[in-house]
């Protein structure tokens, strides 16, 4: 969280230095508004976490919801800022970048829904397993209990690990693609130039 916090603030400062202040044109303005919202929310999030109440405190559920809301709002604003960066002339990004971002959104929503559903099913299965735990196992030695605990992993844990792996690979691929597209902007001209060089060899 601290690394994200620092990089977001540094990025915001560098953008203001490069642009020379605030923007006024419509495509850039919408992108800038979402970018600024992302920066502000990202700045608030770790500060709020520092004042996290004790787990047993009465207002801990309220904190959890606020912390969750701020984090998700920052994420949504960041994704929207990326979508609205495509029409910004200075960025020189190709229109098909939106399809890559759309693919990321679909992947994120699908993984999030699957993990949520799997978590709910796992909780209910775990409760059933606790209620039906064999009484004879309570009289076994400590080493035997440790062995049982290791074998009794949470239900659907393998499925959730697979989803996490797919999510990490997908996010890494999308991030790498966006970085390459931004660094080589305008990428279509760069690819055309590279193709001409290869054909001329």
TrEMBL record:
Residues 1-122 form the Cytochrome b561 domain. This is Cytochrome b561 domain-containing protein. It comes from Lygus hesperus (Western plant bug). The chain crosses the membrane at residues 5-23, 29-51, 63-84, 96-121, 162-187. The lineage of its organism: Eukaryota, Metazoa, Ecdysozoa, Arthropoda, Hexapoda. The keyword Lyase does not apply. One of its GO terms (cellular component) is membrane. The keyword Transmembrane helix applies. Keywords: Electron transport, Membrane, Transmembrane, Transmembrane helix, Transport. InterPro entries: Cyt_b561/ferric_Rdtase_TM. It is found in: Membrane.
